[in-house]
């Protein structure tokens, strides 16, 4: 199942792992494996990638970073094929992502001995980039009756869906707000009327998809194996400027 109706799909550069994710989800459809199990799998893959970065096995690190991205898509795909959407899975996925992102950048800072302000700025930039991508994507999904587990405005604890614990939803949503709240609020302040404007065209969504976590990790993997590890943090710091470019385009042309 797709997050968007066929006529509104765009080339998502961050979603390169979707075909394999679909295969994984379909292979697990009639098993006892749940989306949360797959989420745990991508967390483990992320920690293995961290160890490989630390020890200098950059090809292995690249493999596990990409595997992490594939499994990150597979958990949601499994929820769709099993028809078991849950807020528990949605927020666990997001909390795991941001914590792993922080660890990835801490490790890259450590092995490159970069100035700490570049590392902090790069991490904040990475998260703002991803937040803009998710903001525009969720708006698009809600406009066209796509997958609606994610909400445009995450400002209220959702009611647990069938089969999940409200207590777990409360805890994970609280962690989500703690970790993502400042990023969500910042992007909303930059473009508060995005949900009221015209739907973004496919070409612009493809450009914004370079902010997706899958594409970001692919870039990190590529830079590691190409011997460009010292450029990873400066790149994400500078690329943050594109947030203002994409928002400017939306405001000027698609208001």
| The CATH superfamily title | CDP-alcohol phosphotransferase transmembrane (TM) domain
Number of domain modules:
1
Share of residues in strands: under 5%
Overall geometry: globular
Radius of gyration: 18 Å
Q: Helical amount among residues, as a percent range? A: 55-70%
Query: Largest sheet, described in full?
Result: none
Overall mean pLDDT stands at 92
CATH architecture: Up-down Bundle
The rounded distance between the terminal residues' Cα atoms is 30 Å
The unreliable regions are none
Q: What top-tier CATH class fits best?
A: Mainly Alpha
SSE class: mainly alpha
CATH topology: Four Helix Bundle (Hemerythrin (Met), subunit A)
Query: What's the total helix number?
Result: 10
Task: Report what the structure shows.
- It contains 10 helices and no strands.
- With 255 residues, the chain is mostly helical.
- The chain has one domain (6-253): Four Helix Bundle (Hemerythrin (Met), subunit A) (Up-down Bundle), CATH 1.20.120.
- The protein is globular.
List its traits.
69% helix; single chain; 255 residues; mainly alpha; 10 helices; Four Helix Bundle (Hemerythrin (Met), subunit A)
Summarize the structure.
The chain is mainly α.
Fold blueprint:
Blueprint: H1 18-28, H2 35-55, H3 58-81, H4 87-112, H5 116-143, H6 166-190, H7 202-208, H8 213-225, H9 232-239, H10 242-253
Helix pairs in contact: 1-3, 2-3, 2-4, 3-8, 4-5, 4-6, 5-6, 5-9
């Amino acid at each position: 199942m797709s997050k968007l109706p066929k006529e509104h799909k765009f080339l998502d550069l961050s979603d390169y792992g979707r075909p394999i994710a679909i295969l994984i989800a379909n292979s697990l459809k009639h098993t006892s494996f749940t989306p949360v199990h797959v989420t745990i799998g991508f967390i483990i893959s992320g920690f293995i990638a961290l160890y490989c970065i630390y020890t200098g096995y950059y090809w292995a690190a690249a493999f596990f970073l990409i595997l992490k991205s594939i499994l990150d898509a597979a958990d949601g795909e499994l929820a769709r094929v099993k028809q078991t959407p849950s807020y528990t899975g949605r927020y666990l996925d997001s909390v795991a992502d941001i914590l792993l992102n922080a660890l990835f950048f801490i490790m890259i800072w450590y092995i490159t001995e970069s100035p700490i302000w570049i590392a902090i700025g790069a991490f904040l930039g990475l998260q703002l980039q991803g937040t803009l991508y998710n903001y525009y994507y969720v708006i698009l999904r809600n406009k066209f009756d796509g997958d609606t587990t994610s909400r445009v405005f995450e400002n209220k604890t959702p009611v647990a869906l069938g089969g999940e614990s409200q207590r777990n939803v409360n805890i994970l949503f609280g962690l989500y707000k703690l970790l993502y709240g400042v990023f969500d609020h910042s992007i909303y302040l930059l473009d508060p009327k995005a949900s009221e404007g015209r739907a973004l065209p496919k070409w612009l969504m493809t450009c914004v998809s370079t902010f997706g976590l899958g594409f970001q990790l692919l870039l990190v993997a590529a830079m590691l194996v190409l011997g460009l590890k010292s450029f990873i943090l400066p790149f994400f710091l500078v690329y943050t400027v594109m947030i203002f470019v994409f928002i400017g385009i939306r405001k000027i042309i698609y208001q």
